[in-house]
């Protein structure tokens, strides 16, 4: 059985490798995101198709079948036109960043927030809105930039997971326990 420190170590190492690949070859990373979206769309089509016949009424059957066909079309479209799909996914991330940024700014002015919480909400909201602006203005460069940011995040996460696995291993050997310490 894989122990917790070993699982954390392997997960961290995998994240570092994925991060290096993402930063080194952002175009391949964008392509992988498009393929993952297509796989998700195909899985959604299958589950919607199955749900169509799980009910006992005709109305939901037609609705679920239409959703399945739409998901199937989205998956095929993603594979047939990966460039357009990458741009659409980038615009989707931009819309998400704009919505969350606006919400964070609104949350900064809610009652009961401390000054530090207000500043944090304002800062993250403004950064999200700035990201949305950049992605809306240049979605072509935005897709590659998102791949690079994803890669850098994966590297930082992976390195921290590797160090956390060493700390957990040290905690296990230092206490003489054979199980991870639960917090």
Keyword list:
extended, 183 residues, 0% strand, mainly alpha
Overall shape: it is: extended
Number of strands: 0
Low-confidence stretches: none
* Major beta sheet summary: none
Query: Helix tally?
Result: 6
Residue share in helices? over 70%
Radius of gyration: 22 Å
**What is the rounded distance between the termini?**
22 Å
Order of helices and strands: HHHHHH
Strand-pairing-aware structural class: mainly alpha
Average pLDDT for all residues: 85
- Give the percentage of residues in beta strands: under 5%
Kindly describe this structure:
The chain is built from six helices and no strands. It is 86% helix and 0% strand. The protein has helices spanning 4-24, 26-52, 58-80, 82-108, 115-137, 139-175. The chain has 183 residues and is mainly alpha-helical. The chain is extended.
Strand and helix map with partners:
Elements (H helix, E strand, L loop, with lengths): L3 H21 L1 H27 L5 H23 L1 H27 L6 H23 L1 H37 L8
Helix pairs in contact: 1-2, 1-6, 2-3, 2-4, 2-6, 3-4, 4-5, 4-6, 5-6
Could you give a short description of this structure?
With 183 residues, this protein is an all-alpha fold. It has six helices and no strands.
